[in-house]
Amino acid sequence: MGMDDARVGHEEEVDVGSVVVLDGSTVREFATDEKAFTSAIDKMFASLDSNGDGVLSRTEIRPAFERLNLEEMRFGVPVTKTTDEVNAPPVTKTTDEVNALYDSVFDTFDTDHNNKVDLMEFRSQLKEIFLAIADGLGFAPLTMMVEHGGLLQNAVEHETNTCYFWPITN
Ligand SMILES: [Ca+2]
Ligand SMILES: [Ca+2]
Q1: Ligand 2: distance of its center to the CA of 128 in Å?
Q2: What share of the chain is helix, strand, coil (3-state, %, to 5)?
């Protein structure tokens, strides 16, 4: 009946995502599998385009950036964490810092600077990001959070035999 007992087998299932161990080859194989990658990207694009006008606004695309966990990632220079650090509460950024980050990422996506991200921009930028992530990972597996339904989860599921899932509980 102690607190310790309660933690074993009775963890509250918080369905926010999984901590996964990814290595570069997993991510690269996914990003270079044209069919699987395009299909996953297109699906994500459609789900983000909430007003159905065929382009993504800053507001619409933001959930995708959040799923990519860019705060942890910084474009191909993943912040490698120990298990303890992963389990530690995240360092809170100010809203301004977070907004500035997402704005700069949006500008990277919006290559023709019309303040909208179209499907081609979305595909090509995500592919570059995934390849940069793959380069950053190399052969050193990275432990990171992957939201259910998020893009990196697609990469993980693409080659499940090299990946390990375990639930995040807060
Ligand atoms: Ca839209
Ligand atoms: Ca654009």
Answers
A1: 16
A2: 55, 10, 35
Ligand 2 center from residue 73 Cα (angstroms): 23
Residues 38, 41, 163, 106: what is their CA dihedral angle, to the nearest 10 degrees? 130
Q: Relative to the alpha carbon of 55, which ligand is closest?
A: 1
Res. 137: pLDDT tops 50: yes
Q: How confident is the model at residue 26 (pLDDT cuts 50, 70, 90)?
A: confident
Spatial separation of the C-alpha atoms in residues 155 and 13, rounded to whole Å? 23
**Ordered structural domains, the chain, with CATH:** 14-167 (1.10.238.10)
- Please tell me the distance between residue 10's alpha carbon and the centre of ligand 1 in angstroms: 41
Q: Calculate how far, in angstroms, residue 107's C-alpha sits from the geometric centre of ligand 2.
A: 9
**For 5-19, 107-121, 156-170, which range has the lowest pLDDT when averaged over its residues?**
156-170
pLDDT digits (tens, 9 = 90+) for 39-68: 988 998 999 999 999 999 999 998 877 766
